Amino acid sequence: MTIVTCVKVRDGLVLGTDSMAHIQREGAFLRSFEHATKLFQVRDLPMGVMSYGLGNVGHRSIESLMREFSGKLKKDLKTVDAVGKALFKFMKKEYDAHAEALPEGEELPALGFYLAGYSPGQVFAEEREFTLPESKKPSTPIEKEEFGATWRGVHAPFWRLSMGYGLLVRARLDDLQINVVFDGMPVQDAVDYAVFILNTTIGYTTFSMQLSACGGPLQIATILPDGGFKWLAKPELKIKGPDV
Fold first, then answer.
1. Which of 87, 162, 177, 190 could pair with 7 as two cysteines, CB 3.0-4.6 Å apart?
2. pLDDT at residue 163, rounded to an integer
3. Is 148 exposed, middle or buried (0-12, 13-18, 19+ CB in 10 A)?
4. pTM to 2 decimals?
5. Percent of the chain predicted with pLDDT > 70
6. Contacts of 232 (CB under 8 A, 6+ apart)
7. Strand bridging mode 111-117 / 60-61
């Protein structure tokens, strides 16, 4: 699984993910890796995409698919809505092709995408998301002139902390949630809040008595109307262990 988050304030966006990916072969868990890229810039546009759920589609990683998508994206597609529709069409084709090739009775796990960024000439950011195979088209989680935080993937740990209760008692305890003011929040505070969401979820899953669902280095980026897409914590290749 994974944890991804988008924090939207008046002056910009903060996108963040963990780095753990679970690899499957023939419907069975194979192993997990802690350095999978889940946060991507779309071409050179002020937009970012986060993925969660399935870590690979057949023999293709999500990073490989996103690289191909950005390379093939038509130059005249520059709005968040247009890019969201193109991303949905591209990923659904890849997902469905692999799902149809599976043996009878075997199902492909869900794969989700969260797109956020700025359309040309717009003051506020826009967001789109979809989950395969359920979604028929991209949806809008937060309207253009609304602000707040969303998180997807392993959502229960931070939901419990933010809202003050678990999902099973949601209907009875709405008054216990943390009231965060996003309208007017500076971008730096939005960065800190995104990191808070990620670290809370990673810590919870790391020390609970179950398979660790999130982990690895954080991937963080901001998207500003006048500054575009900027990495704050970018996944980099490096050598571990003794100096070479």
1. 190
2. 67
3. middle
4. 0.80
5. 87
6. 191, 220, 221, 222
7. unpaired
